[in-house]
Amino acid sequence: MINAYIKLVAGSVTQEVTLDDVKDLLHYYQEITSKTGSQLDWDYSEHAFPYKITKEQEDYFVLESKDSRYRSIIIGVGKELSGGNTQAYIQVSLPQQSTHGDKGKANEFCKFLGKKFEGELHMFNGRVMYYYKRK
Questions:
Q1: What stretch of H or E contains 74?
Q2: Where in this chain does the entry annotate a coiled-coil region (predicted)?
Q3: Which single residue of 86, 90, 92, 106 has CA 20 to 30 Å from 80?
């Protein structure tokens, strides 16, 4: 399993995150992509977000797809001790059975969530993207 993290830092919009916050943003993502599709007269929302939220637990949920190009993505939230402070994060994981399509969609979702929370995105390949204002 490989992981990406969106860490909420001092420059982020908020210092706390819940699964409901993440689900709300994913529903918003579906909404805006469906509007794009209606403007283009194309059913883009099914292609932009080919997943259903399943297996909800206390600190994570699974996105599963019936499309043959996609399988699953796991999204969770947590906290870690960083420099004496507690830092909240969103973890996006790709299980062994995930496809290249899942990795592409997971990267899209990570970037979207990183921008919305103005966080620090640690991508699957180890690179870091900064979405908060740095001094």
A1: strand 72-82
A2: none
A3: 106
User: DSSP H helical segments within the chain, as ranges?
Assistant: 19-40, 44-48, 100-117
Q: Any bridge partners for residue 2, and if so which?
A: 94
Tokens coding 116: 């919305």
pTM attached to this predicted model:
0.88
Structural domains of the chain ordered from first start:
2-19+51-130 (3.30.310.120)
- Please choose, from the candidates 123, 57, 70, 73, the residue with its C-alpha nearest in 3D space to the C-alpha of residue 101: 70
Q: State pLDDT tens for residues 77-121.
A: 999 987 788 899 999 999 999 999 999 999 999 999 999 999 999
